[in-house]
TrEMBL record:
InterPro entries: G1P_dehydrogenase_arc, G1PDH, Glycerol_DH. Glycerol binds at residues 128, 175, 255, 273. This is Glycerol-1-phosphate dehydrogenase [NAD(P)+]. Its cofactor is Zn(2+). Catalyzes the NAD(P)H-dependent reduction of dihydroxyacetonephosphate (DHAP or glycerone phosphate) to glycerol 1-phosphate (G1P). The G1P thus generated is used as the glycerophosphate backbone of phospholipids in the cellular membranes of Archaea. Coiled coil: none annotated. It comes from Candidatus Nitrososphaera evergladensis SR1. It catalyses: sn-glycerol 1-phosphate + NAD(+) = dihydroxyacetone phosphate + NADH + H(+); sn-glycerol 1-phosphate + NADP(+) = dihydroxyacetone phosphate + NADPH + H(+). GO terms for molecular function: glycerol-1-phosphate dehydrogenase (NAD+) activity; glycerol-1-phosphate dehydrogenase (NADP+) activity; metal ion binding. The gene is egsA.
Length: 356
């Protein structure tokens, strides 16, 4: 008899609102998620607050919600702790993360610690954390992302997203193409370790990579279509992680490589999450026997880096990160568990894929 898969909880966003200038509807949107809410804590970044704070705040106040704004500048556990101490006595009914990856991550973690519902309002389409329960914060004892609660809602204003620097959108594409190697790693773990594999979640994540791989030329030519497609694909990838109950469909060896780069760079600037992950995907695709050149061309089309030096990394950084990557998360079986990297193999791989 075949053993049934282990049980897990699927927590999904309840409502997702996407469209031009929908930030003006954030108040009624919160109300529709919680009719009895009275107060919200809005966690944001300085630039976003200056750019769109007024419109967001007036919509919340028009919906009879008391607001308290908190500006954060980094995504670290110190910031989360400070914010938690500051907000807990206010007892907000809702936490909103309004901004880029850092604001959304800090807000998601804070909401989780306060046991309050969380609304994700991203202003850049740079990674799939906008709809998933996973957060990346510095200063925790794990080098990879950790699980908090899934956002109860996502509000994506395509007008605001279009004002973000193009580099962030390109980074989002890097985080999307990554799903092809993440899913391959998951299949490998199923085949070689008997790990639970969720076909539906895997297909959903795979599809969000596929659309970028197949349509990058079209998306590059039409900016509005590009933003809408990338943000929908990122939300969908995040939902795939919700369905899987783990980050498996979204994060494989290419993510471990990215975490290892942060480690070897020792806190120095080493590109955006999606940029590092995109470069990692080119190399992991080759190890998996996938069409790595198509991954590379897609990233180029979307304006994302494909070479280490474009994000300030040296050849040695890449080699060290490739060798180190799997050791950061030994329990996550990936292609790097199978093809054990040494310096020679790592250098050959990076050179063959033109990363160095
Ligand atoms: Zn990612």
């Amino acid at each position: 008899m075949v053993a049934s898969p282990p049980s897990h909880l699927m927590e999904l966003p309840r409502k997702i609102l996407i469209g031009d200038r929908v930030i003006a509807e954030v108040g009624p949107f919160v109300r529709s998620l919680d009719v009895s809410a009275r107060s919200v804590a809005v966690i944001t970044g300085r630039v976003v607050k200056e750019r769109a704070g007024v419109s967001c705040n007036s919509s919340l106040e028009d919906a009879m919600l008391r607001t308290k704004w908190h500006v954060v500048s980094d995504a670290s556990m110190d910031t989360v702790n400070r914010l938690h101490d500051k907000i807990k006595d206010d007892r907000p009914d809702f936490v909103i993360g309004f901004g880029g990856g850092r604001s959304v991550d800090v807000a998601k973690m804070t909401a989780y610690r306060l046991s309050k519902p969380f609304l994700s309002v991203p202003t850049s389409a740079s990674h799939d954390g906008i709809s998933s329960p996973f957060v990346s914060v510095r200063g925790i004892d794990k080098p990879h992302s950790i699980k908090a609660n899934t956002p109860i809602g996502v509000l994506a204003d395509t007008h605001l997203l279009s004002q973000a620097p193009p580099r962030l959108l390109a980074g989002g594409c890097g985080d999307l193409v990554a799903k092809i190697t993440a899913v391959k790693d998951w299949e490998l773990a199923r085949d070689e370790k008997g790990e639970y594999f969720g076909t539906y979640a895997a297909n959903l994540a795979y599809m969000s990579a596929q659309i970028i791989l197949e349509e990058s030329e079209k998306l590059k030519k039409n900016e509005r279509l590009g933003i809408r497609t990338v943000v929908e694909a990122l939300i969908s990838a995040g939902v795939a992680a919700c369905i899987a109950g783990s980050s498996r469909p979204c994060s494989g060896a290419e993510h471990l490589f990215s975490h290892a780069l942060e480690y070897v760079a020792g806190g120095a600037e080493c590109g955006l999450h999606g940029e590092r992950v995109g470069i990692g995907t080119i190399m992991m695709a080759r190890l998996h026997g996938l069409d790595w050149e198509n991954v590379r061309h897609t990233l180029e089309d979307m304006g994302a880096p494909t070479k280490a030096k474009q994000i300030g990394l040296t050849e040695d950084n890449v080699v060290q990160a490739l060798v180190k990557a799997q050791s950061l998360r030994p329990d996550r079986y990936t292609i790097l568990s199978k093809v054990k990297m040494d310096k020679k193999k790592a250098r050959e791989l990076a050179a063959a894929t033109k990363v160095i």
